[in-house]
Amino acid sequence: MDSTVVVAVRIPESVKREIEALGLKVSEFAREAMIEALARKKSEEALRWVEANMVPGTEVGFNSVEVIRKMRETM
User: Fold this and answer.
1) Terminus-to-terminus CA distance in the chain, angstroms?
2) Which of 5, 12, 41 has the alpha carbon at shortest distance from 26?
3) CA–CA separation, 27 vs 7, rounded Å?
4) What's the pTM?
5) How many domains does the chain have?
6) Residue at 25 is within a domain
7) Can you say whether residue 73 is alpha, beta or left, with left for phi > 0 and alpha for psi between -120 and 50 degrees?
């Protein structure tokens, strides 16, 4: 497991009370929220990369016969 660090966050007292009223610990709630936000951000960045690197066209995949023939020609 990774080592941990302490992160201090200021939130309105009303938000803290609402979290506690739901029976949740503020520290666990904040930890889970940060982990989820990080995962979402990584997914968004991956999607942007895929969209930016897509090959234009309607075909999916490639012609394996052509690829093998080219490989054989160069060997």
Assistant:
1) 47
2) 12
3) 10
4) 0.65
5) 1
6) yes
7) alpha
Give domain status of residue 69, yes or no: yes
Structural domain for 60, as ranges: 13-74
Q: Residue 38 corresponds to which amino acid? A: L
* 26 neighbors 19 (Cβ within 8 angstroms): yes
* DSSP code for 23: T
**Residue 13 identity (one-letter amino acid):** E
pLDDT in tens, 15-69: 999 999 999 999 999 999 999 999 999 999 999 988 888 777 666 677 788 888 8
Chain position carrying tokens 């739901």? 22
Answer for the pair 51, 41: CB distance below 8 angstroms, yes or no: no
Distance, in Å, from the CA atom of 36 to the CA atom of 41, rounded to the nearest integer, reads 9
CB 26 within 8 A of CB 7: no
